Amino acid sequence: MASWIDYWPQLGRPLSERASAAASIGGGHVHDWMCEMAAVRAAGARPLTVRAGTAASPSDGGPTIAVLEIDLGLPRAGTAGDEPILLGELPVDRCGMVLGDALALDSWTGDGHPSTDGLADVAYWGAYAEAAHRQFGGDLILQHGSQVRGRLDLPLDAAKKLGEALNNWASDKQGLGVMVAVDEHTDFHRFNRASWTHPLRIGAIEVADWGSTGTAATTR
Q: Which pTM was predicted?
């Protein structure tokens, strides 16, 4: 569960140690407070093939991920041919689910962590967004089917100054119809950003020089 990955060390042993223990007995579900994962061994030094089965969202009828099929690249003892192995159900909040290497995910930086590359994204939207655009400029950015204005990959100090200027401008307008977000470049934000233009909110990022893929939201 993407929004809780960096909480594992605060609850005891790191995520990778717990995942390794689960994988050593054939894999399984691991749960501690709000942190949950399904851990299983997979082949190294090769991409994993992941297929998604979709179902209609109960909230808006749009497609949402219901089942994931993963080719782990390893023979499984005690199975006949290509018989699938059920790894279990994993509850997922709106912050999404990550598929990735457990050692890499030990370094995951979550929401609220300082920027890992000194950069940040600024976005603003609302009824007065066009008026703010005339004042401050900014590109049109597509986020999960919605359009916002803003600037990506700004140096952190510049992003904070722009966000402060936008908030001060909105305050002068009694704050009517302008929302401002300054998102520092954490793994969590980069992961979410990678999914902005995918219809199923799926994206891929590098974490600690390892490949990590995931969905930015599998429930709505």
A: 0.86
Under DSSP, the state recorded for 50 is E
Q: What percent of the chain has pLDDT over 90?
A: 45
The answer to whether residue 87 sits within a structural domain is yes
Is the separation of the CB atoms in 98 and 4 below 8 Å? no
* Joined tokens for residue 212: 């990590």
Q: Number of structural domains, the chain?
A: 2
φ, ψ of residue 43 to 5 degrees: the values are -65, 140
23 and 59 fall within a common domain: yes
pLDDT reported for residue 215: 47
DSSP string, 128-187: THHHHHHHH--EEEEETTEEEEEEEEEEHHHHHHHHHHHHHHHHHTTTTT-EEEEEE--H
Percentages of the chain per state (helix, strand, coil), in multiples of 5: 25, 30, 40
What region does 209 belong to: left with phi over 0, alpha with psi -120 to 50, or beta?
Answer: left
Range of the domain at 129: 119-185
Q: In three state form, how does the secondary structure of 112-141 look?
A: CCCCCCCEEEEEEECCCHHHHHHHHCCEEE
pLDDT in tens, 78-99: 556 667 778 778 777 777 889 8
Q: Kindly state whether residues 136 and 64 are assigned to the same domain.
A: no
Task: Calculate helix-pair angle for 129-136, 156-172, nearest 10 degrees.
Answer: 130
